Amino acid sequence: MIYRMKRKLTILLFLISNCVYLNAQQNLPTSVFSDRDVYVAGETMLVKAFTSTSGQSKVNYVDLLNLQGKRVSGAILEINNNQADGFLQLPDSLSTGTYVLRSYSKNTGDQLKAVKEVWIANRFVGLEKTKQIPRLAQINATEHENNDIKIENLPEKLGTNANNSLTVNLDQTFANSLDGDIAVSISLLDDQFRSGSTLWKSENSVLGNNSQQEGLVLSGTVVDKKNLQPAYGINVFFTIPDSIPGFQYYQTRSDGKFYFQLNNYSGTIQPFIQCFSSSPLQRLKITIDDSFISGEMRPATTMQPVTDSFKTSNSRNIDAITFQKIFEQRPFKIEQTTRGRTKEYPYYGNPNKTIDPHLFIDLPNFTEISRELLPGVKFRNYNNEPSLQVLNSAASGYFDDMPLTLIDGIPIRNLNLIKDMGTQDVKRIEICSIERFYGNLRFPGVVAIYTTKGDYSIFQDNDQFIHATVDAVQPKIKLTDWEQKDQNIPDLRQVLYWAPSLKPQDSIQVDFKTSSIVGKYCVSVWGRLKDGTLVCSKKQFEVK
Amino acid sequence: MNQTVIKLIFLLFACAIGSDLQAQTGPTRGWDSVKIKGTKQEVYNVYDGKPYFTDGWCIGKVEFTNGEALDSLYLKYSSYKDEIIYFNEQIKTQIRIDKATVSAFSFKDKDGVIHSFQKYPFDNWAKADRYFEILSTDSPNLMCYRKVNLNEVSPYRDSTGKLKNMAYEQEYLYYFYFPDKGFSPVKPNKSNLLSHFDKESQKAIKKLLRRNRIDILDEFSFVAAWQTIKKQGFKVLF
Questions:
Q1: pTM exceeds 0.90 for this model
Q2: ipTM score of complex
Q3: Which of A70, A74, B59, B233 has the fewest CB atoms below 10 angstroms from its CB?
């Protein structure tokens, strides 16, 4: 008996250990690279990340932290083939110092984050009086120099403002062993501040257990204001007003959490998030989770003496960026690719009737509008208690319940918001005089009012109604070379070439033009092998 | 020793239950799946005949125009209105799914037969979308429009003794569907099926059907005949 139990226990333990092993095996190293190591506040940092190969998440977070662990910039990037690329806008107000570029996904158990230190100089603060600068302690680069990546046809010295080309040759077997694309960059090099990608083990556990397998997810919590406990069974609505409003809903469970998918959106979005309880007396409060994880790191640093050449290059960079700002030179043009719109209709259905009240005689309030212009819609305002009903065309009687009422696509329950609307305020009214369903939501008729102003000024934020600003996935960008229009204005580009996703081939030709800035430049090629090894190849040249 | 083993097993059980409980937090299952848009299904008047294709609810799958799909739904196809109706278990309501959102659906009937329907724009005078049951794939597809009409009939008394003069009557329409040319009507009988082939092929097809002992008497034998013909590579004329 005991023998059999022991055997079963051994098998069980073996299975558990196997699971743990497989789980650990799935998370191959992540890494993050940027176009340069040294920047000036106000610049754009180009970023490439090799993400965890577990394939659990479709989004990668890249953010910039100062040495106090405070996030100063961030972007959410879409993962394709375990890689992501994008850019970070460095705020103009950043103070001079060392910063940490961090890359991670919200995979469960993925506590490893790729980090890279960068130097950012404020345009208005020089390094004249600075004697030492902080550097991250214990930096062990995760990438390995690989001889199978050969950067060829590159002279050691090049002239300024000249067209050039080089070749990146990959061994055939090596090219086949690469996992996905390779990244190539040519940029100004500062010998005094060089850094590589390294892994950082997070002390905090990763947010929730939401692995974002289908894309970016917005989450939050609804609590009962009375006892500050998570509120159960609350309908949370997410609306993005548009000509066809975007809408999602979620009914909270015992943890009071709600989740909305943002994979159809890009850039910064401004959704209206509201919650409704079935009990009119229940007072609720919505909070939205931060998209990024907190700036948990307070890395150990060592002090490095500042050399005169670093001070000189720092002030040269500041001058170059100031000049670029004055002459509105943009080293890269970021073009947002538009997503194709699908043929759709509102979630509340195609309206039976559409009325344009402003085409009719002036009516002072919504009671008059409903009486004169909206057949089958009964709006009454007796004793300052407005009510709204829609005629059910299938049953030839009015619905007992209040219809779904929307102002500019945003659901409302407080009819006081519409009672004073006259024909001058209303652009269009859409009516569905039928019982509609959207998932598990039932709409006993629909009255959708689109206002002439359309500025949502009618809505006021409160604990149950939030007009949030949320970062969705960064739009796809197209980087185009800067065109020099006036020969008298110097070309002050510090990044001569940036291609974050190139298909590995035997021979890749890289065409680039040197700028007016003299100094040392570096050609960098990064990739990741199928076994997870991060590989790179670097070659320097000088522009004179 | 024995007690240690039992304690360990309890510990493992506790761990398993703990992880299960942890799994219960987080998003509800299927929270991010497509939300069905529709209207409440009205009750049809009771007459002789059947307005629905199946007698009861069948478990099936609906594919939507946005590429998403929902499985394990209780479905019922209304042949009378050419609409797919699903039963929403959460709110206990029969909902007519908006035709504009559906691209295809399929369900298994009580006999275990899978019926696959697909939506096609039908270029008749009304130019409306119709659901066609796919009877045989490969170009051209053999499809059936499972139409039921409410027709005026000789007066009769229903089971409650009420006098009525309307009845639901089947009027199934069969088509060959050519992706590049469109629909070509076909009737489930031998002569009409043969008329879709050139004269030389007709003789050979007759011989083929005779050899395979296929006599077209109903839909089942009609589909069997077409599949036998198709195997031999005879070309259908549009």
A1: no
A2: 0.86
A3: B233
